[in-house]
Amino acid sequence: MFKPLSGWLLTPELYLGVLFLCTLPSTVQSSIAFTSMARGNVPAAVCSASLSSILGVFLTPLLLTALAGTSGGIHDPLHAIGGIMLQLLVPFVAGHLLRPWIAGWVERQRALLRYTDQATILLVVYSAFGEAVTEGLWSKTPLLSLLAVAVVAAVLLGIAMPLITFIARRLRFNREDEIAIVFCGSKKSLATGVPIAKVLFAGGSLGAIVLPVMIYHQIQLIVCGVIAQRYAKRAP
User: Minimal CB count within 10 Å: which of 20, 111, 159, 216?
Assistant: First the structure.
C-alpha cells in the first residue's frame, strides 16, 4: 500500500519501520486500560492482548521477512526468534512458574511494582528515543519524511479501527466484546516493539526503524482515549 512512498517521501529505513509497525503485536496494559475505561469485556482484553504479545514473538520476524524480504536485513528468522524469546518470553514464563512462591509478596507490593513496571516501559521508550537522537535521526531525516510518517501512522489507525469495528458488528459480538476487539485489534506495542527491533535490526538504523512505532503509539493513545470516553458515555 505504501510501497510507492518508499524512496520518495519515506527513506528506506522509515519504510522498513512502517512494515515493522504493521507486524507488531498489540499492547497489553493500554488495551486493558482503555477497555476498562470504555466499560468493555476486560477479561477478554487481558486474554487477547496477552496472546497477541506472545504470538508476536514468533510471528513478527516471520511476517517482516515475508513483507520486506532480504531488504529487511533478517537473514535467519529462527535465530531472531530465539533472541526475542530470550528477552521477552523467558521472563514471562519464569514469572508464571514462580507465581506459587512470589504471588503473596507481589500482591503486598502491588503499588510499588506498578510504578516499577511503568518506569521500565518509560526506560524502554527513552532508550529508543535516545538512540534515535544519537544516530542524528532528526538532522538526517527530511522534515517532509517525518510528516509523511505521521500521516502514514494516522492512516493506518484510521483504517484499522473502523474496519475492526465493522467486522465485530457484522459477526454480532455484543457491545462489551466489541470494545475489547477494537482496542486490542488496533493497538501496536512500543514496549514490545523496541526490544524486538533491537534483535532484528542489530547494527542497523534502529532510530529510523522505530520512529513509525513511536509516532503511531502517541496517535493511538490520543484517539483511543477519545473513543473510550464515547463508549463509556453510551454505556447502559
Answer: 111
Q: Is 148 exposed, middle or buried (0-12, 13-18, 19+ CB in 10 A)?
A: buried
- Backbone phi and psi for residue 10, each to the nearest 5 degrees, phi listed first: -105, 135
What nine digits make up the cell of 54? 506472545
Cα–Cα distance measured from residue 228 to residue 38, given in angstroms and rounded to the nearest whole number: 5
The pLDDT profile of the chain, 236 residues, written as one tens digit per residue, is 555 556 567 888 888 889 999 999 999 888 999 999 999 999 999 999 999 999 999 999 888 888 877 555 666 778 888 888 888 888 888 888 888 888 788 788 777 777 777 787 778 777 777 777 777 777 777 888 889 899 999 999 999 999 999 999 999 999 999 999 999 999 999 888 888 888 888 766 778 888 899 899 999 999 999 999 999 998 77
C-alpha cell at 151: 500521516
Q: Which residues pair with 6 in a beta bridge?
A: 10
Residues contacting residue 54 through CB under 8 Å, at least 6 positions apart: 25, 89, 92
Q: Would you tell me how many other CB atoms lie within 10 Å of the CB of residue 228?
A: 21
pTM: 0.86
Cα end-to-end span (Å), the chain: 40
- Cα 61 from Cα 149, distance rounded (Å): 22
* Rg of the chain in Å (alpha carbons): 18
Cell triple for 130? 535516545
* C-alpha cell recorded at residue 58: 514468533
